[in-house]
Write a structure and sequence with these properties.
Shape: globular
Number of helices: 5
Number of strands: 8
Radius of gyration: 15 Å
Length: 185
C-alpha cells in the first residue's frame, strides 16, 4: 500500500499492555482514530517484562497515524486515551503493570520533516526505538524502509539487529482494527 503525502502529519505510535492486552490494545487503536486516521497497524508481539520481572509479559504493537495534531497536542491526547483506558501511572515505578501505554516514537510534520529534539516535554525521535526490540520490531512491520533520524538506518535494519537480543513471540490471537502491513512513506 502506498500512502500519498498530504498536509497532514504522520505519527508512529508504540503501544504496550500487560493487563488484558487482548482488549486494551484494540480499544486504544479505535480511540486513536479520533485523533486522525490510522493508516497502518502492526501485528502484536509478546515479550517478557523489562525492569520488573514479577509481572505478566507485555504485548506490544505499533500504529501509523495520519493526523492534523502537532506533537504536543498529540502527546496530550494520547495521555487522555490512556486515562480513558484505565491507565494508572505509578510515579516511583515506571515499569509497573499497565492497561495501555501509548508512546510517540517518530513524527513527520506537514512539510515532510522528521521532528527532532525536545518538544513539549517529549524527545523525538524516541531513543527506545534504538534499544528496545519490542518497540523497533512493531514499527518496522508498518514502515520497514523508514529511516531513523540522525542514525540513517531503516527501522527494519534496527529491528533485525535488536531482535537478536530478545525473543518476541507473535500473538496471533490479538488483532488490531484497521489496515495492517507495511506502508510506504
Amino acid at each position: 500500500m502506498t500512502h500519498e503525502r498530504s498536509s497532514n502529519r504522520l505519527a508512529w505510535l508504540s503501544l504496550g499492555s500487560n493487563i488484558r492486552p487482548e482488549w486494551y490494545l484494540p480499544q486504544a487503536v479505535e480511540l486513536l482514530n479520533d485523533l486522525g486516521k490510522v493508516i497502518a497497524t502492526s501485528p502484536v508481539w509478546e515479550s517478557a517484562a523489562v525492569g520488573r520481572t514479577d509481572q505478566p509479559p507485555f504485548c506490544n504493537a505499533a500504529v501509523l497515524l495520519e493526523t492534523l495534531l502537532d506533537v504536543a497536542s498529540l502527546c496530550w491526547r494520547t495521555r487522555e486515551i490512556e486515562q480513558a483506558l484505565d491507565r494508572v501511572r505509578v510515579p516511583d515505578d515506571k515499569n509497573a503493570p499497565r492497561t495501555i501505554d501509548i508512546d510517540l516514537s517518530l513524527y513527520v510534520d506537514a512539510q515532510g520533516e522528521d521532528a527532532i529534539g525536545s518538544i513539549a516535554h517529549w524527545t523525538l525521535p524516541a531513543a527506545d526505538v534504538l534499544s528496545r526490540p519490542f518497540v523497533a520490531v512493531p514499527l518496522a512491520a508498518i514502515s520497514p524502509d523508514k529511516r531513523f533520524p540522525n542514525d540513517g538506518r531503516t527501522l527494519q535494519e534496527i529491528a533485525t539487529e535488536l531482535s537478536k537480543s530478545l525473543t518476541l513471540r507473535p500473538r496471533l490471537d490479538i488483532t488490531l482494527p484497521g489496515p495492517s502491513g507495511p506502508v510506504a512513506c
